[in-house]
Amino acid sequence: MKRLLFSLTMLCLVFLLTSCGQRPEVAEVGKPAPAFTLVDTKGKTWKLAELKGQVVFLNFWATWCPPCRQEMPSMQVVHASMPKDKFTMLAVLSNDDPALADAMAAKIGTTFPILIDPGSKVGKAYGLTGVPETYIIDKQGILREKFLGGVQWDSAESLQMLNKYIDQ
Question: What pTM, to 2 d.p., does this model score?
């Protein structure tokens, strides 16, 4: 009986020690955006640190996600209309096939880079809860906005918000 009690106590202790570990830090609005280095479907490497001085529009998406597909055309309008030296749009593919993403991008006519996130490491660093999710990072690398779900990015309200950060 004592042996069983001791074993149960030890098991509970191990469980408590492993379950009480600190949660990994995730992106928070008002704090520096988590750094990342990812490669796009064309082979180009993208480093957030190299985009300082630009507003970064970071969108997590998947081809199987209807709201993601719905917001893509409005994202393309924004991508095409913003000044290239002050604004960068990056679409991070989340748990999906890059070949499907490229095919969908070609069908829709999007031209912004599609980045591949192996093991969803960047998604985890940003605290991704689902797709689509979009993060707006200011010129100093501070996360300023977080949007859950699809957005009509070419709306007057969205464009005003983006231009506010570009003009800072």
Answer: 0.85
